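User: Fold this, then the next.

Assistant: Folding the first:
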Amino acid sequence: MLMFATRAVPAALALMLAASFAAPVDARALSDAGFEYTVTDGYATVTGCTSFCPTTLVIPATLGSYPVTSIGDNAFSGSSLTKVTIPDSVGSIGDYAFSLNALTSVTIGNSVTRIGHNAFRDNVLKVVTIGNSVTTIGIAAFYNNRLKSVTIPDSVTDIGQGAFRYNYLTRVIFGNSVTSIGNQAFQYNRLKAVTIGNSVTSIGSFAFYGNRLSRITIPNSVTSIGNQAFQYNSLKAVTIPNSVTSIEANAFSYNQLKVVTIGNSVTSIGGDAFRGNRLATVTIPNSVTDIGQGAFRYNVLKAVTIGNSVTTIGNSAFRDNRLTRVTFLGDAPTAGTYVFLGSDDLLQVVAQPGTTGWDTTWSGVPVVIAPAP
């Protein structure tokens, strides 16, 4: 047994030595030229300054002979920076990397592919140049700055939640590769007109809430419009393309819409979707099965045509309008309460011959059968 133990000691020692040689370089915090950094696979990630950062910061392209390719999470957050130069070698900017500073402008080089969550939030940025390799703009990446315009390059596919929320944007140019505009992405800006790129499939909740939009172009690629996406703007007309299948709650409420064209793939119109506008007439396409509560409340509607697939109309859906005629093309749907409350006393529901479920009144309104064609 003693001989076995004696032979085991050098073997164990050899294993320990081998493990120590195999340890990754980034197990230690390194420093050079006033910066702290780590190394992975021969590439450096800047993690901060060794003491106080200068207000004008120039990040070197190499540290300790290692090329700088990443800026770590929280690296320079709250460092009182007024200017920063990011080397072309950097490919990734971490979460909160430059948050809570006083930066007025920044150029993100053509090697950067990812801008992390909250990376530049809470600065005073007036100008940002986004390089043409960025694919992802993280959550709240430029939240609460003073940007007046921004160009999203063709490389970007995803604009994160709240990415440009609380800025002064009057102009946005979308690249051709953006597929998703996140929730609150452009909320609380000063946008007056927007043309959304032809690759966008989803517009998130509150995406353009609280701007000054009078014109919006929604491409045929979009399939969903999130709740309150365009609420509280100044839109006068909107065309919802045939690609859209759902319009969520309050999506266009409290604008100045006089004209709306609803595409023939929409199946659901959410609660209060068009509440508080200036619509005088509207046609609900045959694709729609459900009209949510308050969907068209507080407009100036005089006439409505409702397609032949509607099965449910929610409470107060057409309340507080000036309706004199509502034409149904299909069978009688299930009605909520107060669907037409506040309409003209002469209001009539016009049903089609051969349709079913109608009585002498529907939701308290007299029903007449249209003449046979």
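Now the next one, as you asked:
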Amino acid sequence: MSTHELTTSQAIRQRRSTKTFKNDPIPEAVLHELLSLMQDAPSSWNFQPTRV
């Protein structure tokens, strides 16, 4: 994964709603990295129902 950093205004301006996705498989290393990041992400109202 890249370490490209965005400012808050860049993140807001570049935000998009994705309606279609490719059917390409996600490499296992990327999937593990995403799952690891998900565990550190904040949750709505600090609910913590996700277990990995």
